Amino acid sequence: MAWLDKIKGRKKNESAENEAAATEKVITEPEAASNEEMTEDISSEAEEKRKRGWLDKIRNSLSKTRRNLTDKIEGLVKRTGDIDDDFWEELEDILIQADVGVKTTLELIKNIRSRVKKEGIKEAREVIALLRAEVEAMLAANETETVPAGKPHVILVVGVNGAGKTTSIAKMANKYKNEKQKVLLAAADTYRAAAIDQLQTWADRAGVELIKHNEGSDPGAVVFDAIAAAKARKNDILIIDTAGRLQNKTNLMKEISKVKKIIERELPENQSEVLLVLDAATGQNAISQARLFQEATGISGIILTKLDGTAKGGIVLAIADELKLPVKYVGVGETMDDLREFSSAVFAEALFGE
Ligand SMILES: Nc1nc2c(ncn2[C@@H]2O[C@H](COP(=O)(O)OP(=O)(O)OP(=O)(O)O)[C@@H](O)[C@H]2O)c(=O)[nH]1
Ligand SMILES: [Mg+2]
To answer: What is the per-residue pLDDT across 163-199, written as a single tens digit (0 to 9) for each?
Structure first.
């Protein structure tokens, strides 16, 4: 506990100072300054703890991917003498098998090879550090901070059937609520009654309100009503659930783009977000799904779910490299607390760290 030690250390110094001051009756300002420092130490310690918790959670959820990717690279490095063509080929195979994707793998290998050459690296082990740095840089290239502009800030959540939209919405609602934001949900997945009920259950659990119509009603009408309600109730955030869509059904894509147009028409000044939910376990198919949604609605970021159950976590890299989209959140389990904001540094450490 670095901060505790610091406080203890300071207390020791303070008591020595107090003894000295007993005769002189001096000071208060330096103490005031050290109190401020102490508060800073405590809050940076809390931040440190939060980051460590995040790292542990991500590392755990990446355990299958680590076995499939990191452990294999470790094995390769251990049995490699000189870095030769065979080494690069094997590394390539491992990355491709972990769903990093062919294009992204070749890009990574090219960058690492050129650094190995330039920096005169001979030890295969050092390649791991280079890979980690390249992975982090690749992920960081698309990272953006979302600064909600205008109220309500609308988050339209799209994605194919079963990707994890409704669950992720519940998790986001919970997160924003904990941040003291006034959240409203909209059940624009009107395709099945069960979908509306499922969102209602999550809304109740998170303690947020929901706008819903009957099964089979027009999703556009739900969204129109939800925006009006959010304006009237002065909600900070409006999160819209949509039906699971099969990407080859053009009519369903049209419906989603209609919903997007309603948001733009009703809130022309606000910058709404469109978050595409992708199931990490779908591997490379996630890329083709994203392209279709990108055409229909545009996408501002990705929620990558079910990272906890898959060995295909390498898909994160293909998303960053091929789609040039930021991964905003990752889903690491089924409970309300199992959604984490994505950080390239934490992800790279969770994957390649000791
Ligand atoms: N392990 C794990 N399961 C998840 C995660 N996210 C969602 N799920 C599970 O995936 C299943 C489908 O999630 P939903 O949220 O209903 O998916 P959806 O995209 O809304 O599905 P449709 O409404 O049918 O289009 C549920 O059983 C969730 O509990 C995750 O991050 N990890
Ligand atoms: Mg759903």
So the answer is: 999 999 999 999 999 999 999 999 999 988 899 999 9
> What SS3 class is residue 155?
strand
Residues 62-95: tens digit of each pLDDT: 999 999 999 999 999 999 888 999 999 999 999 9
The total number of residues written for the chain in this structure? 354
Question: Model pTM?
Answer: 0.85
**Does ligand 1 come within 6 angstroms of the Cβ of 196?**
no
Cβ atoms of 328 and 301 within 8 Å: the answer is: yes
Give the least confident one: 5-9, 12-16, 172-176: 5-9
Rounded CA separation 79/87 (Å): 10
Ligand nearest to the CA of 169: 1
**Cβ atoms < 10 Å from Cβ of 88:** 16
- Best residue among 63, 167, 215 to mutate for probing ligand 1, ranked by most atoms within 8 Å of CB: 167
Summarize the chain as % helix, strand, coil (round to 5): 60, 10, 30
Pairing of strands 183-188, 209-211: parallel
Q: Which residue among 305, 310, 315, 329 is best mutated to probe the pocket of ligand 1, counting the most ligand atoms within 8 A of its Cβ?
A: 305
- Residue 51 near residue 346, CB atoms below 8 Å: yes
How far apart (Å, rounded) are the C-alpha atoms in residues 108 and 130? 10
SS3 annotation, 8-72: HHHHHHHHHHHHHHHHHCCCCHHHHHHHHHHHHHHHHHHHHHHHHHHHHHHHHHCHHHHHHHHHH
pLDDT of residue 299: 95
pLDDT, residue 29, reads 43
